[in-house]
Structure prediction request, 393 residues.
Amino acid sequence: MTPIRTLAVGLVVCAWLVGRANGAPALNADTQKAIAQAQQVIDGALLFLKAQQQPDGGWTTSPHQPPAITAVVLRAFALEPRYGGKADFVKQGYDKLLSFQLEDGGIYKDLLANYNTAIAISSLAAAGNPQYEARIKKAVEYLKGLQWTDKIQGPKGEVIDQKSTWWGGAGYGSKGRPDGSNTQILIEALRDAGLKPDDPAYQNALKFVTRMQNRSESNDQPWAGNDGGGVYTPANNGESFAGEYLGPDGKRMLRSYGSMTYAMLKSYIYCGLTRDDPRVKAAWEWITRNWTLDENPGMKLGDPANAQHGLYYYYHTLARALAAYGEPVVTDPKGDKHDWRIELIAKLASLQQKDGSFVGDKKWMEDNPVLTTAFVVLSLQEAREDLKARPAK
Prediction:
């Protein structure tokens, strides 16, 4: 057994003893083993990430790389008790991140205003540093201003109303076409910043997210099917990275796929919907029918070569969504039960490189080991903490 693994197991045992003394749930052998495995992978990944920090405090190696990369890495360190948001090198990283904040509150450089600002908000919130509160508040107000409502004119000067497929969504910039990825990151940032679900920004976003779903009872778009899954965007005529097809009646349909279905489920919960809501039920049913950690499900239906596209984004979104949903076990169509926390930890452990890093498909920057490794740490932290709260049965 390696020294790191021995230390990880020892820490789990100590945590178990302290937890029992404080009345926390008992951790059985499977839970302890999974938590120890997660910790081993996290420790190695964070050592890799720490070594990648640049002299200026950030984690970007080119002026063309977005500051969101630094924000994602910082969030991973801030959420890890061994480091936290006040470690010297982490504070240096936050100083670099905040150097990108503009007078209007946005935290970005040149492009991708919503994407960068939203991820930066979640990262700053994770630090738990009161000194960042004013900066976060300013960024949140800026972020709200990017959301498509009647306060913003459309690309041709038109007024956006609730009948528009753009309503409530967010795109990459102040005039960008809204999509499910940017919108779910916006919703996550609002939630991480402490906004309650009754805030109008959530309710506007809910309109957009509902239109992402292949559920014709709640989605008024002509392409909406009924498998309960999510697509990339309902804007304009709708789009899915899993492609489209013709239904039996010749109707144009959009394929649902994994990362957007989990993003949609998470967004529903953050917007205040409960597990009893028909939209949430439909999303959960899609997940149970398409459970896998071997690919981003649905993507290969358009092209088999696409199965690995966005895989680490998928893992990260899956972990946050299922932790928010609060159900540890996914039962597939065969009746097999899957504890998503234990299976995700084992899967990610099998993918770790010798230097502690992770690297994925070139699509969507997942060939960048810094970004991908940070995604993995955040995914494992979700699984680990959920296991502590709800031990495996």
About this structure: The first strand starts at residue 244 and ends at 246.
